[in-house]
Amino acid sequence: MEQILFNGLVLSASYAVIALGITLIFSIMNILNFAHGQMFMIGGFATYYVYGQYHLPFVFALAVATVAVGLIGVLFELLFFRRMRRGSNREENSILLAVGTALLLENVALFLFGEKERGVPDVFDGVLRLGGAFLPEGRILILGVSIALIAALLFFVQNTRTGRAMRAVAQDREVTLLMGVDVDRISAIGFAIGAGLAGLAGGLLVTISGVNAGVGTMITTKAFIMIMIGGAGVVAGSILGAVVLGFAEAIGYAYLPGSLTYLMIFVALVVFLIVRPQGIMGKPWG
Known about the structure:
With 286 residues, the chain is mostly helical. 77% of the residues lie in helices and 3% in strands. It has one domain (11-215).
């Protein structure tokens, strides 16, 4: 049981970083970033080359992954989503554009990297023992970095001027614009942070799960599961959704065949959404 709790905690913390990124973009821009998983994948490949192939420090590799994917997020916001928002307010257009960017990134990655699975050497190769649980030092690193990131992001959103502007844009974009806030700049910053979090999560998790060009779809699916559980656009809800999914995976993989675990998760999700479609912490539409 101790091992299941530790595995669930590591999964929950790393999934929370992913969920916070997609929630930040959705709450500010009202765009479901279908390319979030592909951004995660690019972060994994960046870490693979910088740390795994060129043997530069792992911290530097994480920084490269975060900045590179954050810049991709800024470019997407400037070149695609901002132009779309000015030309059309129809939600289906933003959805189609988001799906298009996901397909673009996935096919570019497939062309550049092929289908081969890549992995990197362990950052730390020691294993600690706590009761009946074995705690690999690499997973402890992932847990610690993820918790620190979550705390830093929550502090940034709640206590900085830019963070308060982001919350204002999320609540009412038009009123915030009338108050003199540069809404386009805040949107670009929000997209950069959200994308950067995806890239950083990819850099962290490549150390235990590897990366390939097709992993993005699975990660995006998990991100949507988390925000559906917690409530779309709710920061605390995304963290709660990550905890639910992380521990559901840990318990399922311990007691059920791998393929059955996600079947049960999807069945439970459908039943849950029938009862509470807005998620645990979301508000009913209207």
